[in-house]
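*Target chain*
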Amino acid sequence: MKQTFSFIGAGNMASAIITGLKGNKICIYDKNAQAYNKFSDTDCMFATDIPSCVEFGSVVFLCVKPQNFNEILPILAECDLNGKIIVSIAAGITLSRIENYLPNTPVIRTIPNTPLLIGKGVTGICRNRYVNDKLFSEICRLFSCLGEIIVVREEEINAITAATSSAPAYVYLFIKAMADAGKELGITDPDLIKHICDTVIGSATLLRNSNKTPDELIQSVKSPNGTTERALNVFESNDFKGIVFEAMKECAERAKELSEQQ
């Protein structure tokens, strides 16, 4: 991409994206100057304020927490954004909310997840009407270098947040529960979590690369009146699928609440 890049915020997600942009001209602003330390061995420039950082880049990434947008959007509204594109990675911050401060500005909204940090992320992405196909393809290509992308309508973003962006936490919780149960059952191997992770990775890879449905692969593991069936019966009797649905519904609802806060 023959673009220059500005980053408002330098947290983990920003760091992952910056890594994917290695070799490009990048300027970073973060109100915590210590955040710059992790970029000391890069060619990144560091700004002393938001306006000077914005001035540097043709693509401006907004990588701050949702609650900080009320602080930064008025500042951005005073900047010259002619010829620039805004890319937000914040949950709950709608395109229209950004447009209220930055009218007629190309804006792309993304919902990445933390595996972006190792190039295995999944990013939901949508755009406003001012983003042309060429610009959108370039930003999509950038996130494709950090994992998979899902091009969606903005109405789907809250559900995508529940299904992919917040989902790594569900997986970590499940792995922790399995490890804790394994220890209770007498497993002493200090690498138990690693073994469970390998099981999760292997199972997910098999599902992803096969032409089979989850139900078909479940049937391939369990046998009538066997050990797996006994375990699955416990999940079913405790409404495991219902719990997952309720959790995802609450996640999507919270994303909606954030989007309605002005």
About this structure: The radius of gyration is 21 Å. Strands lie at 4-8, 25-29, 45-46, 59-62, 85-88, 107-111, 121-127, 147-151. Residues 176 and 193 are 7 Å apart (CA to CA). The chain has a mean pLDDT of 94.
